[in-house]
Amino acid sequence: MSFKLNNRLTLTLMLSVLLAITVPVSATWYFAVSSHGKEIKNSMEINKTEMLNMLSASLASPLWDLRSDKIRSICEQFLSNSIIKKIKVNDSILSNVVYKGSNPPKSTGSIVIEGGEKSIVANGKRVGTVYIQVSSVSYDKSIYDSKRILLYLFVLELIISFFFL
Fold it and tell me: How confident is the model at residue 110 (pLDDT cuts 50, 70, 90)?
């Protein structure tokens, strides 16, 4: 009888320790991953705004002069950046699309923030608009790595805790 009670107490103690470790580590893992995701979204929003401002300023003179070769060159240079997914430049004077380009998708399930339109102003006049779309392809690996590291730490903590029981 004493042996059966001893086994039951040991099992109860092991389950209690497992629960005591699992709950805080799981909560920490969840909050760490979600806060990392929020930081990445904020960073992407800042990058999108900066890229939109730089692209708008870079396109002002070529769009004023209707230099489609310069517009194409500038847009292709910006598209070489891995976070920019799509660029569209509209001419307000002639009401047509001057440039439209995109990068092929590199990953599925990535976060995409649409950038809307920003006016392109040259010599005090609105000469066009630019639209960009920003993708998180380069950030997805960072999220995956942080999840994997936290999972390894969780498993390691479980293993260490059972060695001391």
Answer: low
Specify whether the CB–CB gap between 56 and 119 falls below 8 A. yes
Annotate 28-77 with DSSP letters as a single string: HHHHHHHHHHHHHHHHHHHHHHHHHHHHHHHHHHHHHTT-HHHHHHHHHH
- pLDDT, one tens digit per residue, over 33-54 is 777 777 777 777 888 888 899 9
91-111 residues labelled b (16+ CB within 10 A) or e (exposed): beeeeeebbeeebeeeeeeee
Q: Residue 54 maps to which CATH number?
A: 3.30.450
Beta bridge partners of 4: none
| Tens of pLDDT, residues 120-158 | 999 889 999 999 988 766 566 666 677 777 778 777 777
Cα–Cα nearest to 96, from 66, 134, 118, 116: 66
Per the prediction, the chain carries an average pLDDT of: 80
Domain interval for residue 30: 2-163
Using DSSP, state whether 112 is helix, strand or coil.
Answer: strand
Which pTM does this prediction carry? 0.65
- Provide the domain count of the chain: 1
Residue 139 near residue 44 (C-beta atoms within 8 A): yes
At 15, list the tokens: 């389950």
